[in-house]
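Page 37, top half.
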Amino acid sequence: MKKRVFLLFLFGLFFGLSHCKEVNRNKPIAKEGKMDLSSWDFNKDGNITLDGEWEFYWKQTNNGTQIDSEFGKEPKYIYQTVPSNWKGVDWFGETLDGFGYATYKLKVFFPPNTPTLAFHNLDLSSAYRLYINGKLVVEQGSFGINPNYFEPSYKSVLMDLEPVSGDTEIVYEISNFHYSKGGLWESMEIGERRALYDKVNRSYLTTSFLAGSIFLWALYHLGLFVMRRQDKASLFISLFSLLIVMRLLTIGERNILSIFPDMPMDFLIRLEFGTIYIATIVFAYFYRLVFPNTVGPRTMWVLYILITPFLISLFLPVAVFSAKIHFFQIFLISVCVRITIAIIMAYRSDTVGAGLSLIGFSFVFGTVVHDILYQNNVINTTNLTPFGFLGFILFQGYILSYGFTRAYLSIEKLKERLEVSNKELNILKEGLEDIVVERTQELESSKANIERLNEFAKTLNTSLELDSILTKAFDYLNEEVYCDSMILLLVDSDNSKLIYHKSVVSPNSGLTLESKLHGMSFPLDPSAGLFYHVYKRNRPFRFAKVWESRLNESNQKFVQLIGKHPGMIIPLSSQGKVIAMLTLFSTQKNTSFSRSQLQLVENTAENIATAVTNSILVEEMNREKFIAENARMQMENAKNEVVKLNEFTKKINSESSLSQIIEEMFNYILKTFEIEATLLQLIDTKNKELYTYNTTIPTYATEEQLLFAKSFKVPLNEKGGIIYKTYARKRALFVPKPPKKYESELDEQIFTKLSLTSFVAVPLVVQNEVIGMAYFTSYQKPMEVTREVLRRIAGFCDQIAGAIQNSLLLQITEAERKKSEQAKAEIQKMNEFAKTVNSQNNLENILAEIFGFIRKNYKIEHCVLYFLDKEYNEFRYLNHSGFDLLVDDNINYFKSLRFPLREESGFVYKCYQRKRHFYMKHVPKSMPYAIDKQITDKSGMKGFLISPLVNNDEVVAMAVYGINDKNIQLNLEEVNSIVGVSEHIASAINNHFLLKKIEEEKQRSDSLLLNILPKNVAEELQKKGRVNPVEFENVTLLMTSFPGFSQLTGQLTPEELIEGLDLYFSRFDEIIKAQGMEKLRMTGDMYLAAGGLPLGNFTHAVDACLAALQIKDEVNRMIEDFKDIPFRPNGITIAIHSGPVVAGVIGKSKFNYDVWGKTVTQTQAIRRGGVGVPINISQETMEKVKRLFHIDNQRHINTYEGDQFPIYELLSLKPDLSDDTGSTPNEKFGRLYTQQKRGAKILIK
């Protein structure tokens, strides 16, 4: 039966997929934009679809028969298969999007005498115009090349064609800005008019038939739900059918547009997608109601979550949610697969109607897969899903009829059973009196059994011993159920075992059975067989016959011991937990236990279990009581020992002497543990070994033994043998006898030289660090040390370890204190010396103090200092001490000595490289370096110390100390002290050179500052760090410029421009300085100077005019003299103006002394407006100098504010005040100038 159902399922599935293959493959197809129908007979061969390769023009429009050329170029096109869409097409390296417009063109060769034709195509995406031979035939929607002039339409078209024959050009112009993909996604079909109209009409009728059938089916199931509201499956299959009807009307020919022709296309697409979205989840919930055991709520929640994004997307633009249709198709296939699995699972569990449902659903599954392939242009057929749902409905109707038939059969069977039950009820009514009598007798018998059981329970409760309980239980059960043997097995929960405890067996079993059973146990797992089965179920088991072949290995062994007898296995439970197993059996032949006997034993087992539990509790209580009593005794002993040990601890903690602590330790060990020999070793961290600090002297120990005990050392490595292992493990060790084979040579020496028979080694641990080892032995006498004694010895050693550590720390602290006092005295001496040195500023005096300090404290007479000359990379002579002991030639040798930074410079170079001192106590006869040999020979040194003088991690000099007395030898502290003194020399030398360098830099800085600032301003800036701004009531400004400078700069290189400006401005500097004026700044071709600041005077206007005349003459001279330089200005323009200004310094890192005010801007205006005149002065300046200079040519210029401003031309000095040039003053001018200068006063605010 199941095979047939499966075959029918495959038939339904392949029914849907069978339409996937192409039919009539011998029909002509278009190739390279051409299709030959010259041999096609439309009357005989029927209709034909114009499928194949069409010419595809992207973003190009058609004017009837010709494609427009773009900018005079040939139009580009590719061949695209129809039906398909253009999304994802490769257009000359560009991947096309779904939005855009294109033209499809096909040339068709019709046969002569072609009958009247019609054409039909479904919707295209999503607006188009159709041209045949350049004539517009039809337009759907509004074709547009951008969204503003575009309107979609998804209507199908069926219309007649004008007579055609021969070559015919068919052109589609398609644009899409609405759907996610565009193009000729449906075939254009051409055929004889009547045949094509009949075909389309059949399609309409088929769709109407399917829609009507499914709609009636929906109404039928809706009626079933109204009559029986509990049948929700009928409601959901009705809703699903209605959604399918709506879906059917919105696809294909879109029949719904015949009913609602004005329906918006946007709403039509949303309706098409929405119906299938909702139908999918409704269909899945229908199967949830039909097969609730295989389609669970978790599956539905997953489907709800996955369908939600698709439902939400319906509120987005059509292009957005239509682009996601592939994801929904995957989801739809997944839902179909899940429903198929659910139906198969229901079919395997023999659910009613599952087989028929599987066959019906196969039609849906197959057609859904077919339509997905069709929608993605994989195949070119038509929508088959409605036919699949029709097949599903037919099988669903059969399932419904089958259910009704089963219901009627069930009613008939219930009717027959009811009649039989009535007859039986009458019979029972008649025999009710007999039943009452029988029940009364049974109740009396049960009462007697209960009374006997109560008496048995009282008997059990009077005893607490388990063996007595077992004996009484056996006597009772032997009398009631006639069993002659009983075995008790106790449950060991800790070890998960069933352990034999006691048995009462029949003499027929033999006298050795009990001994054989003793020690038997069974694991509480399946390997225990029947015992585990009874334990796990907590229910009794009765067996009348033993089938040994059916038993596992452990049960077979048990049967072999007791024999193949009928019996029972009873679990003894207390508070729902099995505590023991009771096995009853009878050795008599032809006996068996009845169900009533099993029930009696089961009732009795509750009392036995209670008694056994009480007995076990009493035994555990007695055992715990005994353990507690032992623990109390041990606590008393431990308390006494702790008190004794605390007293000892107080005593040793009050001692600070290590020897006294160890003496107390030895006495305590002797008194407490009667161990005569004790040896203490401490750690030498420097040499990483244990050395003997102290030991007892037993009377029987020989001198050789004591000498070895006091002198032997234990290396802290593998050579240390068992003592090192004990040290590393930090745990006490007892060696009861000498080992047969020694692990190290030291172990053998300890046992043989000390003649040991046994000994104890205990590490002394403080804060998890071993500080020493304690050894306890009796030499030749063997020691008996239990674990408890070893623990007590280890505890004692833990107590004294801290005291020993503290005593050692006190000794170390005392030694460090003495060293600290010595160091303190040394530091105080050095501080006094440092104060003396630091009070000196002169390098000679500092070195004299240092040399005197070294001579006084270290008896060193000779010391020569060499400083590092970085320019020549060598050490040169700086200063000396003790040269009075040498002859003049040797003195000159040391002063002229050089130490290049090379290997040949000997120990000096080595000390420089390492930045460390070098001390040689005795000078050998031969030296590794020639220069060192010369030094020692000429100085007569017996020893020497070379110390590099380091400052800021850099060697600045080298000190060579010579020791002439061979009896003087420096220790490490003295060497370090001299090196420390040398640091003061390094600082002094470094400071000397730094001060010298600072002084040079200061002079350079002052010189630079005076170059950019007036002297008094610079002094004020140096003293205060700032300069107060000053307002001058009257100064004169001189400003120059070169006419045509902008054009000149464009003709010169940067080098030529700077060379010329430097030549002229340098000469201006000399003239300005000679006239007592202050240069302010240079900008471009502008040169600005001022007179009357920073110190005021009455000659500033005269000074400016004199400087202007000299600058004019100097420029004219330089133009003539320096004809070879490219910078050749066209003369010079000079502006002079007098008035108030504000002067001050601006800038932080780069200072600039400048002036501000209206006078400055007016001077700039004079410079700008005075082009063509060499020297222009203002009226204010003219009033001040008119009696000394020749002035003419008054005119007016506009200031920056737009005001009229009078200016004058300065021609020369007056004839009686100058030489023939008119620029150089004579003596008369000098007298007048001096008179005006003497009357000057500083007019400033």
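Page 37, bottom half:
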Amino acid sequence: MTRTLTSLPPRAHSIQVPTPNSQLPTQRETSSATSQSQTDIYKKNLFGGEISPSPLLPLSLSLSPTPNKKKELGFTPSIFLSDIETLESANSSLFLLLKMEDDDAAAAALAASESSVRRPKRARVSDGFAAGRSRSNGSVGEKADQTSLGEDQQSQEDLDQGSVDGSFDDFDDVGPKSKRRGTIPARKENNEQSLIDVIKYNGKLITPAVKRWFEKYESNSKSALVELLMMLFEACGTKYQLKADKLDETNVDDVVVALVNYARKVSSLYYFLMALSQMVLCYCQCYIYLCLVTECQNGPLFDQITFEKCMDYVIALSCTPPRVYRQVASLVGLQLVTSFITVAKALGGQRETTQRQLNAEKKKRNDGPRVESLNKRLSTTHEKITMIEEMMRKIFTGLFMHRYRDIDPDIRMSCIKSLGIWIVSYPSLFLQDLYLKYLGWTLNDKSAGVRKTSILALQNLYEVDDNVPSLGLFTERFCNRMVELADDIDVSVAVSAIGLLKQLLRHQLLADDLLGPLYDLLIDEPPAIRRAIGELVYDHLIAQKFSSSQSGSTGEDNGSSEVHLGRMLQILREFATDPILITYVIDDVWDDMKAMKDWKCIISMLLDENPMIELTDVDATNLVRLLCASAKKAVGEKIVPATDNRKQYYTKAQKESLEHNRREITSAMMKNYPQLLRKFLADKAKVSSLVEMIVHLKLELYSLKRQEQNFRTVVQLIKDAFFKHGEKDTLRSCIKALMFCSTESQGELQDFVQSKLKELENVLMVKLKFAIKEAEVGDDEYSLLVNLKRLYELQLATCVSNERVYEDLAAILRNLKNIDDEVVGFLLLNMYLHVAWCLHSIDNENPSEASVSSLLSKRNTLFKQLDHYLHTLLEKQEGKNRSLLTSRVCTILAETWCLLKKSRFSSTKLESLGFCPDVSTLQKFWKLCERRLYLSDETEDEDVNEEYIEEINRDIVMIAAAKLVASGTVPKDYLGPEIISHFVMHGTGVAEIVKHLITVLKKTANDAVPDIFLEALKRAYQRHMEELSKSDDESLISKSFKICKDLATRLSGTFVGAARNKHRTHLLKIVKDGVSFAFLDAPKQLSFLEGAVVQFVSKLPTSDAIDMRLTFSIPCVANSLKDVQKRSENVNTDEDPSGWRPYYTFVEHMREKYVKNDGLQEEKEANKSKRRRGRPRKARNMRGKKLFDEQDSSEEEDSISESDQEEQDEEAEDDEEELPLIHSLRSSSSRLKSLRVSQQESRGQAGTAGSVKAPSEKNA
């Protein structure tokens, strides 16, 4: 489905980041935490990353010093919870900060986030809690700025007077005064707690606290306003103090600039800890602002001072670079509008009531004081509504219009979610295109969460019928985009969009021609999308809930079921040629369509009991398929392959429901089942599904309801169907049904079924012998083929006790030479199954000599015939017409070898039955398999079904060969490399099989893996050399060489992550032996270096390794380089420059890797030496510093992401410096040894040596 995005409006503010409108949204790229220092991660979260605090808990973080630490001061978190259950223990250290003894050094260290201590395994903030900060903490920075605990808990009177003007004196001290950790600071009495204290420690007291604040406002409005603003600042992670008496003179911009400057000056890591702890407070603030607005609706809300000042600060903070400020301010501002709407709706109700009273008084023609009072009240109420709507518009234009395009998707989601609530709650103001367009624009947002939020908002909007007339222009503008979102890359967004389309259809706002592409999603892969589309199809096309001419009949009676089934059959007619697609459609609609569970109605339609309904043959076939599929679903079976193979477990109630469904199906089918079978017994398209229905019935009900005769009739009809048809599906269904009845039925009925099975076997033997005689005299082989198919299906389910049948089958293969390949295939299959059943019947403990001797004879006969056809197919390959027999011979050979492998019978009384093929037979077997693989690659694309069959047969052959290696049936040294050499040659199916084989080999024969890999590379390279010798086509030559390189890439790719170091010896062995092979006849095979070996060289452990194994990888590379260069000594490479070119390429690659590792090691040693000297580190530029150097906020934020690479380089240095001193001493000798090797082997590497020394000189 094409995706056309709607253009977005122009930028409205400098800090906004526009959403791309050229393509569908994709996930935002995020930097890897493993490639950054922990400090950088915190800084990124502060100014450019995502912050998603838990909205569940108000809590605080107490930072307490770890005892017995002088040079370092660690901190452990303590969670303070009020009236909330304690979270899981936070035993691991949440944050580790470095603090020097000198307070001045501490300030400098905190200002430079790179100086924070980093550990290899730093505890991370868990999802279950968010860190808060303790009120017992003081400020960060100079001693003059620090305050005592008593000063931090100053009296409310001091706060009212504004003891400190525009300062940050109450920021938390890094080192608290209390020696106890994890203790809750002393709380004030409930009537003394400020708003922020209530939010922190006792969220249940928010409402009483608001009432006390309102009382305080009535006595001292300015001090109350100061408290309200400070609550906002503290939620942002700061405690900026305002003086109540100078509040009118304080400029909002000055305060906000001071807050932003503080975020720049303070340590990014420390500030992030403080800000993150306060993010939780914001969610409680949303509720407290609702209470405040509600409490103030008769006073401060309309004084144009209190809330105007609050809105000014909220809007200003929402436009600042620090992300925490924007998140807090956005949530508060959006909640204010929501709270205003609550008040406006109440006032609107009052206005309507007053207007009705006024109209009533006017009708009385009474112009007295009552009318005057009502007029005054009406005018006052209208003014309040107008005023509060102006406040809403102010926040919308000042906050929403900028933040709905914020760089943070969480902020964008909050904005769109709130807008959806506003439109639904207050349509008189917001239900107009001026506001609706933002919902339409964000349908193109690059964040899936924002798109989904917009869709859900629109769903709520379209649910209200009164809103639809005002949505006409909006729907016309964005309906195409809504349809496109049904095929969104994110499944949850697509499902939500389909729900939105249902709303549009309900209001008849969507044309039917736009729904065509949606129906293709009925067979889409994600089940959630298929279910959603199925629900839409049912509502729109089957139940026709959205049609203007709805049927008056209910969905409970038979007429409604028949109508619904008729419409369903009309849909299935579109997929009549593909039963698999029909199954998908049935599975999608089944949950919503009750008519599919109306068993009596379906059976009645099949039996033509209603003369008003006439089914065509196609409709009858589809209805039979629907009946069978619906019965499977009703008893808990899956009719569509699941995305996972997990076993499904049912609750007791679900099991009872499934059992009830089984009883219902049995009751409906019991009397009508024989009639259905008789009617469709000769129809091969319907009989298979009908026969299989019996396995979903509860057979014991036949005895309980005295329907034994119907059961016998059904069994007899199934037996007749077995001999009436020759297709695999019908034969397999008949055998499956009879075997089910023989085990699940009871008493006499079970004996009856078993006798019928024996009768079926005897009749089959008679028919088979007659068909064999006809074939011997030269008659048509069709009868023989059909009876062989019947025997094969019977032997798959049970053992055929007739001993003569095996000799008869072998005699046909010996005596008849020109038999059809399909007949030969089924002859061999039946012989293999007979041998397998004979082996199964032998007593392993006390086998009889006669049975063992008989089995040996049959085994040898089977191998003789298989060997004959193995030779025949290799000598006379006639193309595709023999591809089926080739697959059968390869598969039967592999299965027979696995069945009779020697290790299975060794040291047992059946040891003589063990068999292992010789090397020549194994080579012939693989040659035939290879021919089958190449034959599938040559299949034309004209016939899709034929191509699919060829791919399946190719995969079957590869599975059979891989099974021999994985099970240890044959030696791995020959067949293993041959199979793996085809890793990248025959598509994804074969590649997956080979990948699983490699996984098994690494578990069972890990030591042999290097030799197997190298031999596989040699086989692929030899095929390339053969192509090079016999062909002049450059495209074919380059293709074969590319296959060799791709194979090496895939095989070397199995050594990733920790496997590089774990299997380091394997990599070195492959490289070393590969080099030896390349130089066997130099320079003829030197291209093997470039085509195969170089990929493994790149996988050798590099200097990026953390532990000291890195030190050993460098000499290994150097020794390999030395070994390669020695091989070219005393050889005139100028005689054949093109032949030696791969050698020089390989050597250069090795040298680059060695020099790179050596240079990085030198830099690492220099950094260690610098730390050993104990010099204090210089404070680097803080990440996020550029935020405050420019005026354009968008450019400021973008500059951070652009500097990621530079800071990753700094991080590498930082992490290396944390290694203990002993590591530097131990690695010095290794480094010098590496340098010595480099100087001996490199020619004219003066420049390279300089580059190696450069980092050391720079660091010095």
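Margin note: Residues 1-188, 549-559, 1103-1118, 1158-1260 have pLDDT under 50 and may be disordered.
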